[in-house]
Design brief:
Layout (H helix, E strand, L loop, with lengths): L4 E4 L1 E4 L7 E2 L6 E2 L3 E5 L2 E3 L13 H4 L2 E5 L2 E3 L1 H8 L3 E2 L6 E2 L5 E4 L2 E4 L18 E4 L2 E4 H5 L13
Length: 155
């Protein structure tokens, strides 16, 4: 059975009279002024890294993920084990770590979030409409191009 765990990372000050602790990453003594505490162990700041991308987890944020004896950053955890879905416009797979746009129950790649008649991309604050499960710009929605009143067809 594989267990997933989300763990917080703490920066701990080593007191001058305190005996140096061993690093869980390199097994060396931690003589630095500060050390990281995660997974009930202590680490040099440079030793607590993502097993995939080697990013320093003390800098990335205050959370790390473990699964199958791997210590991972959020992005790699989602890339390897995250739930993915399909884009409502192109039907292609959306990786779990990718930024998306949502409209009701539909999820879209950022590049696919455009009027499905004229292909106009939307900027932050632009109005868009969802009709018959299609994203439309204001011009195409108000023009009634889905009612058969125009020659315009989806591209």
């Amino acid at each position: 059975m594989v267990l997933d765990k989300e763990e917080s990372v703490s920066l701990v000050s080593l007191q001058s009279r305190e005996k140096p602790r061993g690093c869980a990453g390199c097994n060396g003594k931690i003589r630095d002024r500060f050390m990281l505490q995660a997974l009930d162990r202590f680490w040099h700041e440079d030793c607590l890294k993502c097993a995939c991308c080697d990013c320093r987890l003390g800098r990335v944020g205050s959370t790390l993920y473990t699964r199958s004896n791997l210590i991972l950053c959020r992005r790699d955890y989602l890339r390897l084990f995250g739930v993915t879905g399909n884009c409502a416009a192109c039907s292609k797979l959306i990786p779990a770590f990718e930024m998306v746009m949502r409209a009701r129950d539909n999820v879209y790649h950022l590049d696919c979030f455009a009027c499905q008649l004229c292909r106009q991309r939307f900027c932050v604050g632009d109005k868009f409409f969802l009709k018959n499960n299609m994203i439309l710009c204001q011009l195409d929605y108000e023009g009634g191009h889905l009612n058969g009143s125009s020659e315009r067809q989806p591209q």
